[in-house]
Amino acid sequence: xxxxxQPLKKQPRVGKGSRTGTQDDxxxxxxxxxxxxxxxxxxxxxxxxxxxxIFGVSRTIIRRALSRLAHEGxxxxxxxxxxxxxxxGAEEARQIFFARRMIERAITELAxxxxxxxxxxxxxxxxxxxxxxxxxxxxxMGIRLSGEFHLKLAEAAGNFTLLGFLRSLISQxxxxxxxxxxxxxxxxxxxxxxxxxxAIEARDAKVAVELMMRHMDSVxxxxxxxxxxxxxxxxxxxxxxxxxxxxxxxx
Length: 251
Known about the structure:
By secondary structure, the chain is mainly alpha-helical. Helices cover 65% and strands 4% of the residues.
């Protein structure tokens, strides 16, 4: 990975239209999404200066956002060397997937008990959007929606402690997939998601858990192969923000 970043030109501040919350909330959300969509490569150096210029905020705000991401295990804060996107090794990856299996099992069981009709309809809509993304070749957004499906399922389960654990595990899983999964493999999680939701709607916890574990098996089976979908170029990863800022400035 390239340790040095090219100098940046001054960019306009992140607009409020795309994200809400404090400035560090906005920065956190964009970096988290870039990791979840596998646009930001593991081991990428996260220069405070570069990110500050990209987002148009102070380095203090960047540090707060990076600290939140480090707490979730997707960024490493290295003393005197700055922050990098985490790069889990093979053994760590196995431990993360094991932990995620345990969390997904509990969430699925609880969702069978607590999911409302409205939440189930929302899960089905998310699956449709995920399928549409992969159909039109938008793999990054499809991967993001796949992760968000599991977070929505955790919300339906009604246990927000588990939801917090899962959020961190999903982002770490995305890093692992970026490192080890083959981009040539077909993506079939939307069909597997459909089956899980069918079982949840039927309130059949045994079948729902079995299907969720089978889904996790299929994700796990794709690991240990190369993937080239992510980038270590901060400018390229957040180019959509820079482009939108330039368009606003020209109006």
